[in-house]
Structure formats: C-alpha cells, structure tokens
Write a sequence for this structure.
C-alpha cells in the first residue's frame, strides 16, 4: 500500500492537535484522540471512499466506509452509522 502522503491529490497535515487528510480541497478525515470526523462534502466517489478507508488502515482508526443502495455508511466498533448530509462524527 502506498502511503497517503504519496497519493495523488492527497495531503496530510497536523493542525491544532488534529491530523487532517485532505483530498483535493476537501478535508475528508480529521481525527484526534477523542473523535474522528469524516466528510465527503458531496463528493461521493470511489476515490473519496478509498482514501477514507486507507486513512483508517494507515492510522489504525478502526472504521470502514461503504455504500449500500446509493447511500454511504460507516462501520465502527460494531455499529453502523449513516452519513447524514456530508459528515459523520465518531467517538474514539
């Protein structure tokens, strides 16, 4: 697996105690020791989903983003969360 920092159009920054993964101009994953915030900002593409899942793997965050019946979901700690709007917030 190629590290996120080496993926096209993807940057990883650290800001105010959070790690922020940006795809193009959208901060798709933000996390710290207390929470994880996933945002697709309307870009429900395979690339967005893949980068979110790669972030989870690379940083050991334990979530998985998937799609069913045209709707996006997140699996985390044995629970399923529905993207309501553009964002899902998970407690760590």
């Amino acid at each position: 697996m190629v590290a996120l920092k080496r993926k096209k159009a993807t940057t990883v920054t650290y800001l105010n105690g959070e790690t922020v993964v940006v795809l193009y101009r959208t901060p798709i994953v933000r996390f710290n020791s207390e929470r994880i915030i996933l945002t697709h900002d309307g870009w429900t593409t395979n690339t967005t989903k893949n980068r979110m899942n790669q972030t989870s793997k690379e940083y050991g965050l334990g979530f998985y983003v998937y799609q069913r019946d045209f709707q996006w979901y997140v699996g985390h700690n044995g629970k399923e969360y529905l993207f309501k709007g553009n964002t899902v917030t998970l407690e760590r």
